[in-house]
């Protein structure tokens, strides 16, 4: 049984955000991330095979910290937890969704993009969150601007971040890690090019 992490933001510098179209890709790509030094995966609930992919990784790659991303309803939170996810990530944070994620008992990163959303999540007793969509919402300069006025919050910015832009986020005091899909490009997955995924993971693991 995979263990539940204490702080999601301190595990790795870059959380791989993954869209799996073919369930057969799930296990080899998870192994490639582990081999590259990034033993964390956020598997997004954006495809019909996502829950099956989570079940496969939970069973066959227990050494990876396995999360479900793009959680947008309480029902999805419940299903992801039942499939074996050990953390949850959502793109936004309605009160109902926050309750649904809290009910799973799993750690989670609710999505925020504005100061009021950050304050609402802090009011709910949660200090670690996703900043999404990071680049479109003002990027690293935005997070830098709010680091002093909203000092209690720590972020995993995600959305439009690349290997080139990640360091500008990682140098901020209110950023623990970033998330990104650049480590698992669709063409590499389609070609079964796990060596490329491993090499992209290795580069990302060295970013901090
Ligand atoms: C997410 O779900 O967090 C984002 O879609 C990932 O963003 P990226 O594909 O721009 O890295």
Automatic annotation (TrEMBL):
Enzyme class label: lyase
Domain of life: Bacteria
EC number: 4.1.2.14
Molecular function in Gene Ontology: 2-dehydro-3-deoxy-phosphogluconate aldolase activity
Enzymatic reactions: 2-dehydro-3-deoxy-6-phospho-D-gluconate = D-glyceraldehyde 3-phosphate + pyruvate
UniProt entry tagged with the keyword Transmembrane helix: no
Oligomer status and interactors: Homotrimer.
Family: Belongs to the KHG/KDPG aldolase family.
NCBIfam families (UniProt xref): eda, PRK05718.1
Name of protein: 2-dehydro-3-deoxy-phosphogluconate aldolase
Organism taxonomic ancestry: Bacteria, Bacillati, Actinomycetota, Actinomycetes, Propionibacteriales
Gene giving rise to this polypeptide: eda
């Amino acid at each position: 049984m995979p263990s539940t992490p204490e702080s999601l933001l301190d595990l790795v510098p870059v959380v791989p955000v993954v869209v799996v179209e073919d369930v057969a890709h799930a296990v080899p790509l998870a192994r490639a991330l582990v081999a590259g030094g990034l033993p964390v995966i956020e598997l997004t609930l954006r495809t019909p095979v996502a829950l099956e992919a989570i079940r496969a990784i939970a069973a066959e790659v227990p050494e990876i910290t396995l999360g479900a991303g793009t959680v947008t309803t309480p029902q999805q939170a419940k299903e992801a937890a039942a499939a074996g996810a050990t953390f949850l990530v959502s793109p936004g944070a309605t009160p109902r969704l926050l309750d649904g994620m809290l009910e799973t008992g799993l750690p989670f990163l609710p999505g925020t993009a504005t100061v009021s959303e950050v304050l609402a999540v802090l009011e709910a007793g949660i200090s670690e969150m996703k900043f999404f969509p990071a680049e479109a919402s003002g990027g690293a300069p935005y997070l830098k601007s709010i680091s002093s006025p909203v000092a209690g919050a720590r972020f995993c910015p995600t959305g439009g971040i690349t290997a080139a832009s990640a360091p500008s986020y990682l140098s901020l005091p209110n950023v623990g890690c970033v998330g990104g899909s650049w480590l698992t490009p669709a063409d590499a997955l389609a070609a079964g090019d796990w060596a490329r995924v491993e090499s992209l993971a290795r580069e990302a693991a060295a970013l901090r």
